[in-house]
Design brief:
This protein is mainly beta. The chain contains no helices and 17 strands. Strands 1-2-3-4 form a 4-stranded antiparallel beta sheet, with no helix packed on it. A 4-stranded antiparallel beta sheet has the order 5-6-9-10, with no helix packed on it. A 4-stranded antiparallel beta sheet has the order 11-12-13-14, with no helix packed on it. A hairpin with a 2-residue loop joins β15 and β16 (152-156). The chain is globular. It starts with 5 loop residues before the first strand and ends in a 6-residue tail after the last strand.
Length: 179
């Protein structure tokens, strides 16, 4: 069991990576494991290079990406990793280290939104090798639900300004701007 992990894939070819076995910030609870799902059962996959919790990513089971997250000690990381269905390799570097942002899209067209690094309104786009700035969301947020593709994404709900301030807002991204 784990929390604060990411996911990618479909119902019959999914994966999950990273996460935590405890809600605390101790690095000893951060996981580097990957598990794959075939629609019936889970099995082990390749390990992330470093245990990371509150990580975000998407893609497919054989072409996934993860980025950011928390790595002990007290590090909102900027690194990305790419998964080929067997092993993780190095990817591009985020402009801002963050955790609790959420992402969507493919390995060659990824998107992350917001995050917890003093509450971010930043959007970054991934082309499979490097991250670049996208348009900022209207409200700095973290823990929002993000889904879709890089040119047609939705950010729904989340938290803003402080952990007790819930956001009741849906924003749509067309690859250029949020509305």
């Amino acid at each position: 069991g784990r929390s604060a992990h990411t996911r990618a894939g479909t119902q019959t070819a999914a994966m999950t990576a990273g996460g935590s076995t405890y809600g605390g910030s101790s690095g000893s609870y951060s996981l580097n494991t990957t598990e794959e799902y075939n629609g019936t059962a889970w099995s082990g996959g390749g390990n992330l290079s470093t245990g990371t919790q509150s990580v975000q990513g998407d893609g497919t089971q054989t072409a996934a990406w993860v980025c950011g997250g928390y790595q002990h000690p007290n590090n909102n990381t900027t690194n990305s990793q790419e998964y080929n269905g067997t092993a993780w390799g190095a990817g591009g570097t985020l402009s801002t280290g963050r955790q609790y942002s959420h992402g969507c899209g493919l390995l060659t067209a990824g998107l992350i939104v917001g995050g917890h690094s003093s509450y971010s309104a930043t959007t970054e786009e991934y082309d499979g090798s490097s991250w670049s700035a996208g348009a900022n969301v209207h409200t700095a947020l973290w823990t929002s639900a993000v889904f879709g593709i890089q040119t047609a994404a939705v950010s729904a709900s989340g938290q803003r300004t402080s952990p007790s301030a819930r956001l009741y807002e849906t924003q749509e991204y067309n690859g250029t701007s949020w509305s």
